[in-house]
Specification:
This protein has 105 residues and is mainly alpha-helical. The protein is built from one helix and no strands. The longest helix is centred in the middle third of the chain and has 103 residues. The protein starts with a helix and ends with a helix.
Length: 105
């Protein structure tokens, strides 16, 4: 009977060790899961901040692009006007030179 009792105690000890090991594993898994949840939340916050920054940058770039397009159109019109005025002034200069040449002759 003492052999049976010793075997039962040995089995109980082994089962106790297995249960203890399994409890340690569960505790580790729970701890790792909590750390993962924190890491995921931090990563999500980082992604959200990056997305917000990129969205704002894209909106600013679009606004700047639209302003630049308007400015290019305005400057192109100014160039056309100045070219027309320069052509007119060159014609006036030629007419004045021709008149001066006729008076000189």
């Amino acid at each position: 009977r003492s052999d049976e009792l010793a075997d039962e105690q040995a089995n109980a000890t082994r089962f106790g060790l297995v249960i203890s090991t399994l409890q340690d594993i569960v505790t580790t898994i729970d701890s790792d899961a909590a750390k993962e949840e924190i890491a995921i939340a931090q990563f999500q916050a980082w992604c959200d901040a990056g997305t917000k920054g990129l969205t704002e940058s894209a909106a600013a770039a679009k606004d700047n692009s639209e302003k630049a397009f308007v400015q290019i159109r305005e400057l192109t019109a100014t160039i056309a006007t100045l070219q027309s005025e320069a052509t007119s002034l060159n014609a006036d200069i030629k007419d004045l030179q021709d008149a001066q040449d006729q008076l000189s002759n």
